[in-house]
């Protein structure tokens, strides 16, 4: 039995919710903006990993240096603790998301791998156990455990991190009228660098403002007040410091707002930016602007998206491929 699982790209923070809000993305053109992981029996009896896709050349050459190997070891360890011993597998990663993009690239690989492995071994882990493992694995890459990418990538929708013992996240209502223009310029910003540039302490005024914006944003989503929600999408925690890492961000923000975007922010740690629009014609204008002015090389891309409410999904085994 072979299993193939797709995990969507995500926006961490959503501007107003540093480390505690995240949303999964789904391009309106039907393309897959996320990684796919296949799992099959290992013919050789040893762990095997191959990769293909647009950004596969950015991955480490040694399979055991790839996060998918850690996903396999993590599942294997958890099952051994339950008294179940599983053998080696053959995995293939379709690496469709760029590394260090602010689109939850590592989260997408981790979520797809853990979900695929769990299915392959008969679904022994429940959703909560899978999500905790995903957070631990993400923490190995970013340096600290946080769920604002893995949770929406896995569960779908807009997620608020609760991090309770019995419940790690909660699904928030998604504004159905919003389009999310997402543009990756083609350069890399490391999560570690983006975190190190933030101040160690914030003023009382900034903390109060952040709390007001976040509380009103969540309230507005539940009230169905899209206008209030988008007005609250201001980042006082990360964007004022991180925007210097994103060439052209400020000029793009001003241009997108003039075109009619309702809010513009940094996706996760960047350099991807997102723009919220409630009119498809405005979204298309913003997308065209970003494709022309924000992308810096052939690795860059821009998509008009909706919120992906489904999260992980089984897909047909892809045949692209020169597996390498």
Automatic annotation (TrEMBL):
Catalysed reactions, semicolon-separated: L-homoserine + ATP = O-phospho-L-homoserine + ADP + H(+)
EC numbers: 2.7.1.39
BP terms from Gene Ontology: threonine biosynthetic process
Biological or metabolic pathway of the protein: Amino-acid biosynthesis; L-threonine biosynthesis; L-threonine from L-aspartate: step 4/5
Domain named GHMP kinase N-terminal: residues: 78-157
GO molecular function term, any single one: ATP binding
Binding site for ATP: 98-108
InterPro entries in UniProt: GHMP_kinase_C_dom, GHMP_kinase_C_sf, GHMP_kinase_N_dom, GHMP_knse_ATP-bd_CS, Homoserine_kinase, Ribosomal_Su5_D2-typ_SF, Ribsml_uS5_D2-typ_fold_subgr
UniProt GO cellular component terms: cytoplasm
Highest taxon of the lineage: Bacteria
Protein name in UniProt: Homoserine kinase
């Amino acid at each position: 039995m072979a299993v193939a699982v797709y995990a969507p790209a995500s926006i961490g923070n959503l501007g107003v919710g540093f480390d505690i809000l995240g949303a999964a993305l789904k391009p309106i053109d039907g393309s897959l903006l996320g990684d796919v992981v296949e799992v099959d029996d290992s013919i050789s009896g040893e762990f095997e990993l191959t990769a293909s896709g647009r950004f596969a050349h950015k991955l480490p050459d040694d399979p055991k240096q790839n996060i998918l190997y850690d996903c396999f070891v993590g599942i294997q360890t958890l099952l051994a603790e339950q008294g179940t011993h599983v053998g080696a597998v053959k995995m293939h990663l379709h690496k469709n998301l760029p590394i260090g993009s602010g689109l939850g690239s590592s989260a997408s690989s981790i979520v797809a791998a853990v979900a695929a492995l769990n299915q392959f071994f008969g679904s022994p882990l429940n959703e909560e156990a899978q999500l905790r493992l995903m957070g631990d694995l993400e923490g190995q890459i970013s340096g600290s455990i946080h769920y604002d990418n893995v949770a929406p990538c896995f569960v779908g929708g807009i997620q608020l991190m609760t991090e309770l013992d019995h419940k790690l996240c909660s699904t928030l209502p998604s504004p159905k009228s919003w389009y999310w223009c997402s543009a990756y310029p083609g350069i890399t910003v490391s999560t570690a660098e983006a975190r190190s540039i933030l101040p160690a302490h914030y003023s009382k005024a900034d903390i109060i403002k952040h709390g007001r914006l976040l509380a009103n944003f969540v309230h507005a989503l539940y009230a169905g007040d899209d206008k209030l929600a988008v007005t609250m999408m201001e980042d006082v925690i990360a964007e004022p410091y991180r925007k210097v890492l994103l060439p052209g961000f400020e000029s793009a923000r001003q241009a997108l707002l003039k075109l009619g975007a309702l809010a513009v922010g940094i996706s996760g740690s960047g350099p991807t930016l997102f723009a919220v629009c409630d009119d498809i014609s405005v979204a298309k204008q913003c997308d065209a602007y970003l494709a022309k002015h924000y992308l810096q090389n052939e690795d860059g891309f821009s998509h008009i998206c909706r919120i992906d409410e489904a999260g992980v999904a089984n897909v047909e085994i892809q045949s692209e491929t020169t597996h390498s």
